[in-house]
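The following block was generated as part of the benchmark described in Methods. Ligand: thiamine diphosphate.
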Amino acid sequence: MILNKVNYPEDLKKLSLDEKDILAKEIRDKIINTVANTGGHLASNLGIVELTIAIHSIFNTPMDKVIWDVGHQTYVHKMLTGRKNKLDSLRKYNGLAGFPKVEESIYDSFNTGHSSTSISVALGMARARDIKKENHKVIAVIGDGALTGGMALEALNDAGSSGTNLIVILNDNAMSISKNVGGISLMLSKLRTRNLYIKSNMKGKKIVSKIPLIGPKVVRFVQKTKLGIKHFFIPKMYFEDIGFRYLGPVDGHNIQELEKVLRISNNLTGPVLVHALTKKGKGFKAAEENPDQFHSAPKYDPKTGERLGVKKQDYSGRFGEKLVKLAKDNNRIVAITAAMTDGTGLKEFAKKYPDRFFDVGIAEQHAIGLASGLAKSGMVPFVPIYSSFLQRAYDQLIHDVAITSLPVVVCVDRAGIVGNDGETHQGLLDMSFGSTIPNFIVMAPKDYRELDKMMEFAMDIKKPVMIRYPRGCEEKDFRTAAKIALGKTELIRDGSEVAIVAIGKMVYRGDEVCNKLSEDLGIEAKLINARFVKPLDEFDLLEKVKNTKLVVTIEDGTVINGLGDQVERIFFKNKVDKELIKFAYPDKFIKHGSVSEIEKRYGMDTDNITNIIESVIEANNNSKIRGING
Ligand SMILES: Cc1ncc(C[n+]2csc(CCOP(=O)(O)OP(=O)(O)O)c2C)c(N)n1
């Protein structure tokens, strides 16, 4: 095996081109077999094998800095930079991260996870290098999907006119998670045919020149206007017009060609864009045929590609199903996605109502801006965005939606701990930042039925609303369908000793804790479903907890400014003297691992919550007894 001989880029540099081709196959096999067990971003990694080999063959990493956009395509890079023997631990607790991490390797120059950041970061590093009079290369590797993001376009705009030495490698597979969309994608698809155009042009010239009398004239005319035609047919001019030297397109699976073009880029000065054409899922039939399904793959059979485990309906699926139902009776409902049609459950909506569906590319800011324009003009936009990606659009939520109090329904998918994708993908901040925005209503359902109710409520209330729900399935159907009233909580279980106020999926955790308290100590605890983080009806909450001295909050978010803090503020404002324990995640970035491992690590599991409540109750009882006994 060639792979056995390769641990670091210097080993790669000793290989012949033939050996590198064999290595590419071995890397693919290893990734296919490993990701079958760990799950992960299979298709993007299979598509970038040769390009990664070429990058590490030509550039002098880690002196030269490579910034991987999104960072989901770095499994090959990790294998070639000293981590191939740890690949089995990918995305697992204490294992290799699924994204670049500076704390994991000196070959990871920058942490990524969200899309479209690489060119900005690379330009920053290049400018710092120039100021410090250093002499290394900075390379941004960005996909055509990520290039649709506003931040990437802002960076191209800045970099192009900067004159700074910077190499942008565009890994163009014509796919975002699903098929790429938008004008940039159209421009790239014209560029992809560039070689074909030149070839067919030559062929055409030969044929036309053979036509008697008019033939030569036509050829002369074509030659005279060639520049204009070139502008028309070959829009490489886009990159050149904004200040980049454009190299390509090059076959992204031909290591020899790639090395040739990267060598040229390495010797040029100023900003350079290398355009590589790749195939997502390359070398694994199932992934080539369904690259979207293997973008972020669950476990699968490495021989057949059959996905293992039957996929039950999850929150995103339920959201999509309900939206289709609502849209049937309300033709003002529109849906917007930022390149996540499938992930957010909008596939069916897109099929049923193509005129009311908008995929805007990886453009969360624009998605919210677009929604506000639609809302101002009488539409009812539903915009499902993953919690961590919604962070991008904080200002649009404030400036475009909330200040005018427009009826935009932001559906915050993957809220809370998401698990294996780690820090960049955990959805822990949305309740906290959502609550800071005046006019926004922030709510979370405990199960699917309540999600349906909240969507109806949001559609009717005509105000800015966020509804947050977690990754995965409901844990329990609580079978309550009490009407939603603004700010009002819902009593799920009655009790006396302790009141547990929980929100979203943590209502189930509260339910488990109640069961355990009952089993362990024979205590009946009160369980209150908060439903709202904001507004929280003070009178309603105080009334529900008035008979319990101990109040516990449980939420799947940061402890800063979440449900617990809202409850504490209400107690403080109303001078209510109660003991409050807040269960939430600390003010930290939380690494990758399974959801249950993370919950345990941060004391958010049923056993820990119950133990703490029990110890407080016991301590209080003892102190009471001590008090009685003097
Ligand atoms: C801000 C943000 N929004 C959405 C995503 C989810 N996401 C991860 S990869 C991806 C598609 C990236 O496409 P591309 O850059 O072409 O890379 P490819 O996987 O095709 O190689 C998307 C939408 C993200 N990571 N960041």
